[in-house]
Design brief:
Blueprint: H1 2-22, H2 32-40, H3 54-64, H4 69-93, H5 98-109, H6 113-116, H7 122-143, H8 147-160, H9 166-178, H10 189-211, H11 215-226, H12 233-243, H13 248-256, H14 267-282, H15 294-311, H16 314-339, H17 345-350, H18 352-357, H19 373-376, H20 381-394, E1 403-407, H21 410-419, E2 426-428, E3 445-450, H22 455-458, E4 461-469, E5 481-488, H23 490-507
Parallel strand pairs: 1-2, 1-3
Antiparallel strand pairs: 3-5, 4-5
Helix pairs in contact: 1-4, 1-5, 2-3, 2-21, 4-5, 4-7, 4-15, 5-15, 5-16, 7-8, 8-10, 9-14, 13-15, 15-16, 20-21
Length: 512
């Protein structure tokens, strides 16, 4: 039986990884955010303006093994597969058999996790860590062994070093713990020792944050003011339904399991989930922030569905099980070409009412556009790099080391650095790129990507021309200009560039 279960699980994991590569049309490039995280792999540190350091370690490993697009996409796919493995193990801990394990796996497989695991971002590892935490918590509930408290908080620390959203889960956990029968943990010395161990593990990142003026707080404030302020709490709730629309019966059954007498000892799990969801709703968070809560809910739901099917006669129970496995996969097909960049941009533009119906054309600015924002963020980057490379090559070779490439945003800078294969080094004042701006560079020429510079800046050059622009009308970078500023005057370095570097770095400091 063990070999059979392992064979089935291996097949599901293989299907998961294959699906991750099937959902992206080859016309799309990497996503804007992926270029930022890849750039962090070239600048390893204990922290970055927008995220803790773990994503940079993944990026560094990818770089060591060739920096290919295949590897970039494989990493989140594997992390998603590992999340299924731990959900499988949670089902087993709850007493579920192979049907419940397959049902839980298929519910995760045909869900928004395909979208989460599509991009090289901290989200995939974040969801994996949350799933592992619930697995460890269940092991502790069943055994009460102190070692699981240490395992739990070590994973909390690792999760913190990946993404700060673990703070919200921990707030939900401590609230849930206070209202659960396990509140006596607050009197357990191992609980505090484990908590202190977690603090030691994250202290390097905390120290980095303090050194740099706690940019995390600035980042959160900017996120609230620029994006979350236009979010609606009802949007968050609706997103939770859409994420698992074809397996919603399993999710609902999982929540129902919170009120089943036999599961009272696991009430801490559901209290944590409910309190965390409540915190997210209170802060008007984006819907996907909470998605890491669902593997454990789905595990509980799958076990309860399995119990129900066992109560039916053999034939009826067997039919029900087949339907519960097959139907979600079939129902997912209509969403396949809408939720993922499977169609070309032109095909989407010609049928964008289908996308508008699900609210997928709404960008962070609150307005509808031709393409979903994530899809538009995966276009135009190679064109930008090729045109920048051409302009770079037009500069005399003797002047290239003194030619600065500066961009409006991290996507532009990261894409140029990635697609040029290290031949070009582009800079930006946005996000962590602000930390890497060169202060001691003797600048003679400047290639700028984005908006035309103001007249004051232009006065510090002998000549400026608009050399090219992005022509892909579906790209978010459409019409972005590429300018070349020749022969910088000595005043540029002192009056423009160095103050610009200082301002860019200070901008992200919450405590100036």
């Amino acid at each position: 039986m063990l070999k059979k279960n392992t064979f089935i699980l291996s097949g599901i994991l293989l299907l998961k990884i294959i699906l991750q590569f099937m959902i992206i049309n080859s016309v799309y490039e990497l996503h804007r955010d992926e270029y930022l995280y890849l750039a962090e792999g070239n600048n390893l540190a204990f922290g970055f303006i927008e995220v803790p350091p773990i994503i940079s370690i993944f990026a560094w490993v990818i770089k060591v093994f060739g920096n290919s697009v295949f590897l970039i996409k494989l990493v989140p796919a594997v992390l998603g597969a590992l999340m299924i493995v731990f959900t499988w193990k949670i089902v087993a801990e709850l007493g579920g058999d192979i049907f419940a394990q397959v049902l839980a796996s298929f519910t995760l497989l045909f869900s928004a996790f395909l979208r989460i695991n599509m991009l090289f971002q901290p989200n995939s590892f974040d969801c994996l860590c949350w799933t592992i935490l619930f697995y460890i918590l269940i092991k502790w509930i069943k055994t009460q062994y102190p070692k699981y408290l240490y395992f739990f908080f070590i994973v909390v620390a690792v999760s913190f070093l990946n993404k700060y959203s673990i703070i919200f889960l921990m707030a939900g956990f401590f609230l849930g713990l206070f209202f659960s029968p396990y509140r006596n943990l607050f009197q357990n010395k191992h609980f505090y020792f484990a908590l202190f161990l977690a603090f030691l593990l994250v202290s390097s990142n905390i120290y980095w944050q303090i050194q740099h003026g706690v940019p995390f707080l600035h980042h959160m404030l900017a996120l609230r003011n620029e994006q979350l302020k236009i979010s609606e709490r009802m949007d968050f709730i609706l997103d939770q339904l859409l994420f698992f629309i074809v397996g919603i019966h399993v999710v609902i059954t999982g929540f129902f399991a919170a009120f089943i007498t036999n599961n009272k000892k696991y009430r801490i799990i559901f209290l944590t989930v409910f309190f965390t969801l409540g915190i997210f709703i209170c802060f008007k968070a984006k819907g996907y922030y909470a998605i890491g809560l669902y593997p454990v809910v789905i595990a509980f739901g799958s076990v309860e569905v399995e119990k129900f099917s066992k109560k039916l006669n053999l034939a009826l129970g067997g039919i029900l099980r087949v339907l519960l496995i097959v139907i979600p996969a079939l129902l997912f097909l209509p969403f396949f070409k809408v939720a993922f960049p499977v169609l070309t941009p032109l095909e989407i533009a010609q049928n964008n009412q289908r996308f508008a119906k699900f609210g997928l054309l709404r960008w962070e600015d609150g307005k509808n556009h031709v393409l979903p924002q994530d899809f538009a963020d995966m276009l135009g980057w190679k064109e930008l790099t090729e045109k920048t490379q051409k302009i770079w090559n037009s500069i005399p070779e003797s002047e290239r080391t003194n030619t600065l490439i500066i961009t409006d945003n991290y996507g532009e800078a990261g894409a140029i650095n990635y697609y040029s294969g290290g031949k070009l080094t582009a800079h930006s004042s946005e996000a962590s790129f602000a930390l890497w701006l060169p202060e001691d560079m003797d600048i003679k020429n400047v290639i700028s990507i984005g908006m035309q510079s103001d007249s004051i800046t232009l006065s510090h050059f002998n000549h400026t021309v608009k050399a090219d622009s992005i022509t892909n009308r579906f790209a978010r970078e459409y019409l972005t200009g590429i300018y070349i500023h020749y022969a910088a005057k000595p005043s540029f370095q002192k009056k423009i560039w160095l103050p610009y570097v200082k301002y860019s770095r200070d901008y992200y400091r919450y405590f100036k």
